[in-house]
Automatic annotation (TrEMBL):
Residues 151-424 form the SET domain. SUPFAM superfamilies: SET domain. It comes from Chlamydomonas schloesseri. Residues 355-370, 534-546, 562-571 have a biased composition (Acidic residues). This is SET domain-containing protein.
Length: 750
């Protein structure tokens, strides 16, 4: 458990509700210079952001200003839009309750109605029902071919430069399944990392295709994303297709030419706006026909040109939400399997690894052994789903289980409206906070010297340095990445609203986004200090450390190694740990105070401008990484801040309901509320006050019945139902339990 004392004085304690930010004026807060000045003073000691994480060179780089191939992948993350409360769950309490009462079970993806009976049954029956429900939900994907399904959606010509898109054929509700489709080409991080340039050579060598890359074009330092990008091309080049698949492939758009010369040299990939109508989804996916079609057609001629193929793959491949195989489902399935066959111990996994370790990767000994986890980095081409256009407030969520993509409505969408996904990762989860987000899209943008993106870039390390564009970045960053990677300027409602905000507020947002990366690195450094300062080491300042959690995720910052060495060189171990402890406290306090100061600047600016709730939400959505850094710094100090967890969950849910990030924050907000209430209950009990009704055990605490817990629980289950559809209570519990146990295990590992 990560709890511990509450710091009521935390800088975000005022953030009771994102929709009701205080309007306290902050003199001069709207003057850009003044804000900048404040900010710079606050951040004077912060280290420089590291040099760009994403290489600027790539083997298939085009002649124009297009991003290098390492960035030429579509990182579609989650989706939908609508506010958190407008998702599956706004009105969920009633249905949730009735679901429990009447025992209606959830439906699996394959339509299996394994309804568990949670109440009033013998424990073994409950367990069996839970397992059946989990099986129903998690069956098939990955284990065998899952029939493609087309829900209430159809292809439409959209006009306005957007080309084709998908629209609803009736009103759909959050959580409704819109599409399941198996990939035509799919690359994962594992299996490709080691291949390097040999993959590229293989691509050349496998078929004498005119125009495909030649070896001398390829960078010997081919990186993972390059390898995956090329891997998809290789898969598409080398496989055979049915006639309907070939027809669909021939209708794919590519990136628009970057210049006239580029168009001449590039061979003219078709831009979305110039394309003929796409075949119906049912035709593309072969839904409604029993005919077994032969796969004997090769890739259409148009795509056998290397530039066109590269452009088509870049425009049509994407990485589903979460950047990995759906993690909740993966871990919950694993638990269900463990129930059936007994858990696979780490020893078993070790043995399995040894047994299978006939490759020559130099692996030896268990120090390099890591337990299995969900496969990461799926970059794929899914027929039909490629017609989903982008929105920065998408109304669907798309995630992958096995190699099947599931697209569900994440908001209510009226009949005939376009459905959209995000081409950008959401970027608001714990991985982002702690810098472990290997899956986020590269957002390093080449400077073309024009426009807002260039202006922003010139002063922003968010774009040019160690961060990347996510759905929770400011509009300039999102647009720059989308334009660079996909060749369009996003004009979604969120972008338009954000663009319309007061210029001074936008400048503050840019300033915050720019500085957040530095705060993140400061936090990592602080955590590294904590790592060398063991628990229980008292010194003069230790009183306020009572109960501090040392279990928060930690990562060693870049600067830390040198600092560690210095410390060790000091001599006495006791002195070193004591010094480290002081350093840790100082560094963490500094992050909290700097992030808190920015939060206050945002609040003051929004208050002064008297923004509407929608405008506040738009403004705050662009600086969510600041809130997450503040949350992480507080959590690392053992402090929980329920309003902050709630605010981030609400913001992430308003931008990308049903996304993995949304579920993470919703589960976090629930746990935070449970901890807070349990703590209050314990305090009350200690003071001999009457303890309110409590039911048995959550994580070692008496689980209190409290409105705050109940409300957080309703919002959390609503988020899960948005992502996974009408799951039953046991399945929801199984997903939450698996998530909690995995996080506890990770914390213990750390
Ligand atoms: C995966 S395809 C989507 C389907 C595409 N509209 C078509 O007709 O084939 C991606 C391409 O669609 C276009 N596109 C996607 N989202 C867009 C948006 N929000 N505004 C304008 N164009 C968009 C861009 O040309 C992008 O490269």
């Amino acid at each position: 458990m990560r709890l511990i004392g509450l710091n009521r004085q935390s800088p975000c304690a005022h953030a009771q509700d994102s929709a009701a930010m205080p309007t306290g004026a902050h003199p001069g807060a709207l003057m850009r210079t003044s804000i900048k000045c404040n900010a710079k003073t606050q951040l004077a000691t912060q280290p420089e952001a590291p040099a760009g994480l994403w290489p600027m060179g790539g083997p298939l780089r085009r002649s124009g200003c297009r991003a290098p191939s390492s960035q030429r992948f579509v990182a579609v993350a989650a989706n939908p839009a609508g506010s958190d409360s407008g998702g599956a769950g706004g009105s969920e309490p009633a249905s949730s309750k009735s679901g429990r009462r009447n025992g209606k079970g959830g439906r699996g993806y394959a339509g299996a109605g394994a309804g568990p009976r949670a109440r009033g049954n013998a424990p073994s029956e409950v367990a069996a029902a839970a397992q059946a429900a989990a099986d129903a939900l998690f069956t098939n994907p990955g284990a065998g071919p899952l029939a493609p399904q087309v829900g209430p959606v159809a292809v439409a010509e959209l006009g306005g430069g957007r080309g084709r898109g998908l629209v609803t054929t009736r009103t759909v509700q959050p959580g409704e399944l819109l599409l399941t489709v198996r990939s035509l080409a799919l690359a994962w991080d594992d299996g490709l990392a080691a291949l390097g340039s040999s993959l590229a050579t293989d691509l050349v060598g496998s078929e004498p295709v005119p125009g495909t890359p030649v070896e001398e074009d390829l960078d010997p330092d081919l990186d993972l994303e390059d390898a995956k990008f090329l891997g998809l091309q290789r898969q598409l080049l080398s496989r055979r297709y049915t006639l309907r698949e070939a027809e669909w492939l021939a209708s794919l758009c590519g990136l628009p030419p970057v210049s006239e010369e580029g168009a001449e040299q590039g061979g003219g990939a078709q831009a979305a706006a110039e394309l003929p109508p796409a075949p119906a989804l049912e035709t593309v996916l072969g839904v409604g026909t029993d005919t077994v079609e032969r796969r004997d057609v090769s890739l259409p001629e148009r795509l056998r040109n290397r530039d066109i193929l590269a452009d088509v793959v870049q425009a049509n491949a994407f990485m589903p939400d979460g950047g990995c195989e759906d993690a909740d489902v993966y871990w919950a399935r694993r638990q269900v399997e463990d129930l059936a066959v007994g858990p696979m111990s780490l020893d078993d996994e070790y043995e399995a690894k040894v047994d299978n370790d006939d490759d020559d990767d130099g692996w030896e000994g268990d120090e390099e052994f890591e337990p299995a986890g969900p496969r990461v980095g799926p970059l794929g081409v899914w027929p039909g789903a490629n017609l989903l256009n982008h929105s920065c407030m998408p109304n669907t969520v798309a995630y992958v289980i096995g190699d099947t993509l599931f697209v569900r409505a994440a908001r209510k969408v009226s009949s005939g409206s376009e459905i959209t996904v995000s081409y950008l990762p959401v970027g608001g989860g714990a991985d982002t906070v702690f810098g472990g987000d290997e899956t986020a899209a590269a957002a390093e943008v080449e400077d073309d010297g024009e426009g807002a993106a260039a202006e922003y870039e010139s002063s922003s390390s968010v774009v040019s340095g160690g961060s990347r564009g996510t759905l929770l970045s400011p509009v300039e960053v999102r647009r720059a990445v989308l334009e660079d990677s996909y060749g369009f300027v996003c004009g979604c409602s969120r972008c338009v609203t954000e663009e319309g905000l007061d210029p001074k507020l936008r400048a503050l947002i840019a300033d915050i986004a720019d500085s957040t990366q530095g705060l993140r690195e400061d936090l990592e450094t602080a955590l590294a200090w904590a790592e060398v300062a063991p628990d229980g080491e008292d010194d003069e300042d230790d009183e306020d450390d009572e109960g501090q959690s040392k279990k928060a995720p930690r990562k060693k910052g870049k600067q830390q190694t040198a600092e560690d060495d210095d410390e060790e060189g000091e001599g006495e171990a006791g002195g070193t740990t004591s010094a480290s402890r002081r350093q840790w406290r100082k560094a963490a306090a500094s992050v909290v105070s700097q992030a808190g100061a920015y939060v206050e600047l945002m609040d003051a600016a929004m208050g002064k401008l008297k923004l509407s709730m929608a405008e506040q939400e738009t403004a705050q959505s662009a600086v969510v990484p600041l809130y997450t850094v503040l949350w992480a710094a507080l959590a690392a100090r053992g402090e929980i801040e329920p309003p902050l967890s709630e605010m981030v969950a609400s913001l992430v849910g308003s931008v990308a309901p049903g996304s993995a990030d949304h579920l993470w924050w919703r589960a976090n907000a629930l746990e935070t509320a449970q901890i807070l209430v349990a703590e209050e209950e314990m305090e009350a009990a200690a003071a001999s006050t009457i303890v309110r009704g409590a039911t048995a055990g959550f994580g070692g605490f008496k689980r209190p019945e409290d409105d705050r817990v109940a409300n957080a629980g309703k919002r959390c289950s609503a988020a899960f139902k948005t992502r996974y559809g009408p799951i039953s209570r046991p399945v929801y519990k199984a997903l939450l339990k698996a998530r909690r146990e995995r996080e506890d295990a990770e914390r213990e590992d750390a």
